[in-house]
Amino acid sequence: MDNSSLTFAYPWYLLIGLFVVVGATLFFAKLKKRNYQALETFANHRLIPELLQGYSRYRRILKSVLLISAVVFIFSAMARPQKGFQWQEITRKGIDILFALDTSKSMLATDVNPNRLERSKLALIDFISKLEGDRVGLIAFSGTAFLMLPLTLDYNAFLEALHTIDTNLIPKPGTNVASAIDEAILALKNSPNQKILVLISDGEDLEGASLRAAKAAADVNLKIFTIGVGSHEGELIPLKNQAGGSSFLKNQDGNPVKSRLDEETLTEIARISKGAYFPLEQTGEGLERVYSEKLRLLPKQELSQRMKQIPIERFEWCLLAALVLLMAEYGIKERPSKHAHSFVLTRFFPKIFGAETKKQSGLLKALFWCSILISLTACSKSPEELYSQGLYAEASKALQKLLDEDPKNPALHYNFGTSLYKEGKYEEAEEELRKALEDSDLQLQERAYYNSGNALYRKGEKYLGNDKQKTITSWNEALANYQKTLKLNNKNEDAKFNHDLVERKLKELLAQQEQENEKKGADQNQEESNDQQKQSQDRQNKEAPQHEKNQDQASKNDENSKDKTSESSRSELREQNTKVSEPSPIPTLGTSSSMERYRADENEMSKEEAEALLQALRNEEKKNLIQPKELQNTEEDIVERNW
To answer: Which residues are registered as beta bridge partners of 200?
Structure first.
């Protein structure tokens, strides 16, 4: 900071204020004199001092001085007094553009108005007016080429160089497009940014080496955007002789030369170098299309940084002084309120005294509210200042107003989204940051992806206790944004740290969810097993009496068979009376009679053994169930950059 002298950004306001003060002083002085003369018409001059008793002449003068001083300070504040300065870092972003303009005799053809060369120069002037922060250079070429203006930010210097170009600038005749491309490659050799050559010509390459030069340009990542000037039908080339007359350019045989637009060559040059071809047209819209469809969309790189002196505003003190003076003037009364004579004067002579009082009161109110309005307007802080002071809600409101005026500004969407993130409004923040990705600035895209990833992570945290599936979805989207950040800048350590942290937490959450699902499945299987066992026991209880009845019937049949065999008197083939019975149902555990009988017939285990085995199996099943693990509570958190 420097203690320099006091300066004014708008000094003409001081001059305006001077005229206002002088005019107001003369007006009120004349008004007072007129009022006094009017009073003399109603009363004798000897009675006037008594009638004016209570009015203080000194108070009136003091009020006038205070009012005039307040007006002076108000105009001083409007002039924006500045004292001292502070340094601020300014970053310039842009691309490097070289313009190569054909200055051969064929550019004098009048198939576009006024001729090809002049139409090209006018289009270049319009083009330059749209650039901000881009470096530009100029190459002139005909039979050879030379760099008229190296890359510069001085657009006025470019326009001055452009105005000096004519067809007599380069003595060597012809149209050597290759030399212009070679000169551009040499001029942009050390440029680390986007390399652009805008070549304006009718395309009649008399040397024939332009395609070779275009391949060399492609090898060094130089994009060539070609602009065709002229018409397919062609036009004669007018010339002026020394006598002031006009003729047409002729070849060696004495025939007039007709110059035609060679779009094929220009298109092929653009294709090889990964550029584009546009015809200039009659009004120069070809160059306009190069800017709107191509160059405007290219990512702008950071070209330079410099420190700039920002003056420190001091208008607040002037406004404060004006407000204090106005309040003091308002508080001073010209007469005591209890004075009857003054009341009579105001009551019965309102045109003389009341009118002046009302006018002064109206002027006072107008000046007061004007100063308040100026104070509010001048003292309003920028969104960046509010954000840096931690006033995120106020910063968001200010940015919302700016977006209402410029809704397609990606930088405003980025700032608005970042401010909403600080407020904790993560869903709205993520939406605004997504709109910022429409910008072609790669650095802005990197920041937008990074902050959007943080917003998605925080949004997922909010659902962690209620809806883990939404948390998983948000964290997956956050990982994708961190990956895009690293794709734009693989050296972004904060993005890498956040990516690894969120990835680890996501794996832990998925493992926890899987364990919970397995536990639910095991519990469900246990319930189904218990239900099936209960149903089996009920079925066995119903079938046990039928089983005993079947066994009694089988015993009777065996006894009858033995009696019939013993009574046989002849030696006959013994037929064994066999009966195939249905499989015996499994006895119900806990029915003593059926269990004892079944155990005797089938040599089955005892009731106590079966129950012990069943209990052991249940205990083993509970023992083998997977117990879910809670998500580890770590103190690690994502890194938030204050971008």
So the answer is: 101, 227
